Amino acid sequence: MTMTIMFAVLFYFAAGLFAVGLIYRIATYARTPAPLKIPTTPAPRTRFGVVMLMAREVFFFESLFKATIWTWIFSAMFHAGLALVLLRHLRYFIDPVWSWVSFIQPFGLYAGFMMVAGLMGLWARRFFVDRVRYISTPSDHLMLALLITIGISGLVMKFITHTDVVAIKDFFMGLMSFSINTLPSDWMIYLHLSLIALLMIIFPFSKLLHAPGVFFSPTRNQVENSRDKRHLSAWASKLDSGK
Amino acid sequence: MATEIKAPPYRVFNIAPAVVPGAMADVKTFVASDKIQENLGFPVFETPDWHDKAIGKMGELLGKYRSLKVYMDACVHCGACSDKCHYFIGTGDPKNMPVARQDLMRSVYRRYFTLPGKLFPWLVGARDLTREVLDEWYNYYHQCSECRRCSVFCPYGIDTAEITMAAREILDSAGYGQKYSNEIIGKVHAIGNNLGLPKPALIDTLEGLEEDTKEDTGFDIRFPLDVKGAEVLLITPSADFFAEPHIDSLIGYAKVFHAAGISWTLSSMSSEAGNFGMFIGNYEQMRKIALRIRQAALELGVKRIVVGECGHAWRVAYSFWNTLIGVGDGGKDPYAIELQKQLDHRYKQPMHICELTWDLAEKKIITFDKEANDKHIITFHDSCNVARGSGMGDTFGGQFEIPRNIVKAVANHFHEMPEGTTHEQTFCCGGGGGLLTDDLLDLRVKGSLPRMEALQHVVDAHGVNFMACICAICKAQFTKVLPYYGFDRRLIGGVHQLVSNAIKLGDK
Q1: Degrees, nearest 5: CA angle B331-B334-B338
Q2: Of A125, B115, B142, B291, which residue is 20 to 30 A from B203 by alpha carbon distance?
Q3: Does a structural domain hold residue B25?
């Protein structure tokens, strides 16, 4: 029961920090003005075009595809895998489980392997490509280690040790209605869950901010219409009135 | 410094070089003197509070530029940009990889502005802003030409140019300015152009040009200066007034105006298209330089503002003038309205000289004798700031198509350089962004490697003997570095140099 309470506290804390931290970051990005038009070619000339470009960037990693095919492959494997795995995990938070969530369960399983393989590939680049080795910091390595450990501990519980998923669902459904149900006593689930909590905690303070960041990148989200429409930020327009 | 400057060998395979740490660590462009700094109202160096000034400026810029704020946070060190910079390809110095160049600042950002950097600097690569770090900034942020090639490939669109500009702005605020850029900005404020050509010298040059073209063509081609009530104000880089091959393009513009019967003028007060305020990332300087153009347009009462062949200038004109000085459409504030009332909005404001020439050519108002350029086998070098930071015409990619259309309309032999080295993936000439100074010649020669490789390809395959471009810096840079690679320096020239050769003057 002690562990259950500790994890309950941990998850409330992690979820709170994750939400507040992320909202604070996004608010900061949104509040900071972009005084000049700096879209990078190929830049769309309409708002709709920007939405399409952003969609290609977020779903297909278009720029990365142009840059290096291996990073793109590993990165796509990891992100697509992670997305499916996350969707698969929705079943722990909803009851009854939506039919499409049930449908993707088997795919989400294979996606777990794809995710770990992609991460391994990304990590290998940090050792074997001299340029990428040069720029890698300890936190870059630890981040990959963290994600891989989360992935592998999940796969181990599915395929080797097996854990009481019904009890885990009870635990999380309980947390969502502010009641505490016993978490199964299993070291693998303790490991899996603590690392996920750690990931949520460091998210708003780390390079994981690339996820919200891409939407606020002026080279990608600006409409290229500088000759047709005057673009003025608040601080820049003050210079105007000063004249 | 006595070592001989040599071109690096071409790469056998078209891949990134192995990293050579510290290869360019000692390359340092001349520092601005106290006088140059004071002239712009910037502090001078070696004051005890440089550290606090720099960190204070960094905090200010993080609040003023979303680009900087987001780009400091978003990088994941994926390495997509790592082999995209021409200075890295040419030097192998890992700090010339865009990501590593950004990290010079990101490491300091993390230390002073993020929680993990404050608590665990070793973990996230955070470091204090020491004097050594500041020197490193100075050296490597003056090995970036702000060409933005890296930003094409970054999955988050991180633009190293934005970070270089911020770094230079911070360095300036600590008194650590660059001699080349800051001296030139002083000249623009005092005289009106980057070269410091005063009005009498300008008059002299233009009169000489009228005589020369009369001799060459038999026609009275005018090069008007300060003519009130002219239709067009031409804003062109001051190198066009005297440097080779720039001047041949100036003659080309004059012939186009002559053949089309458009009245035009230059301005002695505003005789510069280039805006070095952008190079140093200083909004106020950039605006102040641009304001001279607005003032000239108002005083001369012109209907159109046309910009000559100049890459960074066109980026500032196309992307920033509307913001800075209200040249463009859609301004609803009183400040912009005054100018917009005067300008003729049937035309794009501002307009690139290539847009003007191509429009006239399409309407058959000007015609060409293509055979006049038959001795030239031509390729086209996309200048970085035109390619990635601006547009032309009404459709996407106009900045690529319009200059090529002109070249193809005035000449018979045209060949593209290999894919991946043109259009938005073009390589910088190696001299842009405030680096076109002789104290950086070694860097400039090495940085032009990828472009020279691409050029060699079409020289071998098609016998190309003329590389056309639309940028004053590209022209000056290539004139200087082409011989290091065994090419004739006259291989580089302007698009309007070709127009000048072929345009028919008689019928009009």
Answers
A1: 85
A2: B291
A3: no
